[in-house]
Fold:
Amino acid sequence: MGERIVGEHFNPRGEPKRGYSSERKAKEEAKRFGKSYYRCGVCGKFHLASPPR
Ligand SMILES: [Zn+2]
Structure:
């Protein structure tokens, strides 16, 4: 096991996730795509997360 990249801010391809500065917007988008959202500790914005399978 090596060091983990910061999973809350980067997607599995190592690219920064799309961030929403507004919680309301993140909530709308999460609902639209059937995902959840969370506040990122790295950039302070909101990212969408896939629901647990
Ligand atoms: Zn982030």
